[in-house]
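Ticket #4471: structure export looks truncated?
Reporter: QA, pipeline team
Priority: medium

Steps to reproduce: submit the single chain below to the structure queue and open the exported record.
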Amino acid sequence: MELRHLRTFEAVARTLSVTQAARELHYAQSSVSDQIQALERELGIELINRSQRRIRLTAQGEVLSSYTERILTLLEEARFAVSRPATELALGALETLGRYLLPQVLSYYRELHPETKVRVSQDNRGELYQSVRRGDLDLCLTFGTPPVDAGLRAETLTEEPLVIIVPPGHPLAARGRADLAELAAEPFLATQRGCGFREMYDGAFGAMPAKEPVAEVDSIGTLGACVAAGMGCALLPLVSVRSQVDRGEVALVEIGDTDLRAAITMTWLERNSANPNLLGFQSAIRKQLAA
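Actual output as written to the record:
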């Protein structure tokens, strides 16, 4: 079976219209009809019921349609796979994950695959998902659940605890633990709306009255610096504040009455799933997080 015949049949089966299929494929209608008939002659069966004014697939046509979709999808996967540089891996991550999670994973990955050139970019969640969809990135790392998209695959790698950071001299610093209602009485800083960290904040305190942040900033680095300077408290994933806590710039307060967590997720393009560089990185990050 010729691929062009299968592509033509797929368009007719999907649109149930020779006219629309011809328009999509930039063929004359007669050419579409000729290709379908050639396919029918080769298979020795009727694929289209022509006894009615409106096109209908025969039972055998329905069966072939399901195979045709899979064949053409596999062909696109193969074309995409061979078009990628054989020794390059393109990764994207939120700034926090790029700074605090990726370095160890990449070091481990480079030990296993020294021939692979790794390209890393940072952006917000929406742009990272779009870059994966376009094929600009092989994989992205984000907090939270990715959008529902048939072309994307995702896996939750781990869940990171959400904690409160306070200035070192804060009364709660010595206790190291407080309930959410008590914490809600404190002034908080947060990132701007639309940011994933702001979603975490609103999810924790959104139901409480008048719990608007006293200030909004555009980066985690600025947020941590403002807390260290005594402006207020902040709610963030533990991975993003661990180094500040270790240096004594801020103090850590655990939330005592509820277990708040943020999922760390890797997302990649379905048709890129067989990419050996991608598979190698996925294996490396799973092993590093398990360790």
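Status: closed, not a bug. The export was complete when the record was re-opened. Leaving a note from the reviewer for reference: The first strand starts at residue 48 and ends at 49.
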